[in-house]
């Protein structure tokens, strides 16, 4: 046996593969990192939906004010926000599109007449759960709570 064969033989026998425990530790670490990332992404998406709902409430409010200027009064409960989807007699175009009266959780915005605190109306999103009350992303959002 030559010296090159003995060196090659030692190199081949000194190579070591990963043990099952080492591979499992790496997989557990990757799983933990993925879990932390998923929780953070979900929280960011919830905050983004709340922000989008607030922006949409502001848009609906602005268009209700335009409707009042055009018609002389706010819509009745029976007319609701649907009246904003009808073409205007002044411009022939609707003030809102169907997608504008649906919140980020695919629930229709509530139109309440009269609103709280002696307001003529109130526009409400019932939040992620679609029910009154709640906390966090499930909390109700009203246009009256927005800073104007």
Structure characterization notes:
- The chain is mainly alpha-helical and 148 residues long.
- It has helices spanning 3-14, 20-71, and strands spanning 110-112, 122-125, 141-142.
- It has a 3-stranded antiparallel β-sheet, covered by helices on one side.
- The mean pLDDT is 86.
Q: Structural class, from secondary structure content?
A: mainly alpha
Low-confidence blocks of residues: none
Helix fraction by DSSP (H/I, runs of at least 4): 40-55%
Largest sheet: 3 strands, antiparallel
**Largest sheet: spatial strand order:** 1-2-3
In percent terms, what proportion of residues is strand? 5-15%
Topology as a string of helices (H) and strands (E): HHEEE
Radius of gyration: 30 Å
| Straight-line N-to-C gap | 89 Å
Overall pLDDT score: 86
Shape: elongated
Number of separate helices: 2
* Strands, count: 3
Properties at a glance:
148 residues, mainly alpha, elongated, 2 helices
Give the topology, please:
Elements: H1 3-14, H2 20-71, E1 110-112, E2 122-125, E3 141-142
Antiparallel strand pairs: 1-2, 2-3
Can you give me a brief rundown of this structure?
By secondary structure, this protein is mostly helical. It is 43% helix and 6% strand. The N and C termini lie far apart (89 Å).
